[in-house]
Amino acid sequence: MGNINNLKSNISHAVIKWMSYVLYHSRFLHYMLYKIDKHGVTPEKFHQVLVRIYTSTNGVIYDKLFTDLEKVTTEEALALRDRVIASFEVLRVKGHIVGQDLTREILDSLLVEYQQTGYTVLPFKLEKRSCDQIVDDVSKKPGVYRDCFDGERIKSVECLDIESPQGVIAQVDILDHSTDVTDDVLESEFFEILAEFLMQSRRALLTIATVWWSFPTKNPSSEGAQKYHFDLDGLKWSKVFIYLTDVTVDSGPHSAILGSHMPRKKSSHLLSRGYVRVEDSEATNDGNEKTFVDSKGTIILGDTKCWHKGSMVKNNNRAIFQLEYSCHPISSRF
Ligand SMILES: O=C(O)CCC(=O)C(=O)O
Ligand SMILES: [Fe+2]
Fold it and tell me: What is the pLDDT of residue 334?
């Protein structure tokens, strides 16, 4: 019986894969992406189709669509590199950055690392005072608790209490509740242009701007993305993770399986289960695991098509400022 079920699932996987290539070569997918771009609405069914396309072709069709529709030319990439440096200066002059200056050579090496591994840590940090100011300002804003201690999945509150939280995660949406520092960061356009450069894409649309705290738990929190998974937030996207607290092995470091963002790199048997979270021992077969233990202000950029997770918090708590930039307005939020 088990063998028959396996056979059925292999056949359906092969059929979906074949259909994905037909949809791609007939340019139906290009047409749908063009329509979504024009109207700004992603039909829910179409998003589900895209997820199946990703899992059945192991990311190959996503990569082809990106190259066909959004990739910059070599000349555009060179101009982009200079724009990254100019926007970096804006942020540096405002006093929010400490560490190395940004040069063309550094950007070239960050790009190679990002393309090969899916991740890069910037050679400078967000100034400690700027981090503390975000934490201070945001902790008085309206927000939500996730994985609440009373069993509720999510709960909105007028003012978060970080000393005595009501859930494993406390989160504020910066698009609704900005602060002086987050305004400076967004107005400089530095991360937007850097994301365009690292993705080598014509555009980077801000899709998420949020600050959240993770608090200690006994088991990995699903709402807190504490089991290995990959995101499917568009055609290509880049997440900026800025640690607002010192992050040790015990305070929930971000972890990723380097290289697993590339087409054909994830194990087919994991993808054949669909779009689900997997065990550490399974994800770690698909590349080298990196755990980002680092100090306050550290800035990590990640292509979260890589298997990744926030580790469970054992001691203290971890605050993070996250921005997500996507090259296409296709969305998983309807
Ligand atoms: O908390 C983390 O480090 C991971 C969060 C995550 O999975 C994500 O932002 O996509
Ligand atoms: Fe994620």
Answer: 42
The count of C-alpha atoms lying within 13 angstroms of the C-alpha of 68, restricted to the half-sphere facing its C-beta, is: 15
* Window from 9-13, 93-97, 136-140, 326-330 with minimum mean pLDDT: 9-13
E strands, 174-292, in order: 205-214, 237-243, 254-258, 288-292
Ligand 1 pocket member 227 (CB < 6 A): no
Residues in the chain: 334
Atom of ligand 1 at shortest distance to CA of 253?
Answer: 3
Ligand 2 centroid–CA 309 distance in Å is 6
Q: Which CATH class is domain 74-326?
A: mainly beta
Q: Where are the beta strands (DSSP E) in 228-311?
A: 237-243, 254-258, 288-292, 299-302, 308-310
- State the pairing for strand pair 237-243/167-173: unpaired
Indicate if ligand 1 lies below 6 Å from the C-beta of 310.
yes
Closest CA to 322 of 211, 246, 221: 211
| Ligand 1 and 110: CB distance under 6 A | no
The Å distance, Cα 1 to ligand 2 centre, comes to: 35
**pTM score, two decimals?**
0.95
Report domain extents, the chain: 2-69, 74-326
CA count, 13 A, side-chain hemisphere, 205? 14
Tokens read off for 227: 């089991």
**128/123 Cα distance (integer angstroms):** 15
Distance CA 206, CA 326 (A): 7
* Helix (H) / strand (E) containing 55: helix 44-57
Q: How far apart are CA 20 and CA 53, in angstroms?
A: 6
Q: Please count the other Cβ atoms lying within 10 Å of the Cβ belonging to residue 269.
A: 9
Q: Which two tokens stand for residue 271?
A: 């993808």
Residues with CB under 5 A from ligand 2 (ion): 225, 231
Atom 4, ligand 1: which residue's CA is nearest? Answer: 310
Res. 1 pLDDT band, cuts 50 70 90: low
Do the beta carbons of residue 294 and residue 123 sit within 8 Å?
A: no
- Pull the structure tokens for residue 149: 């201690």
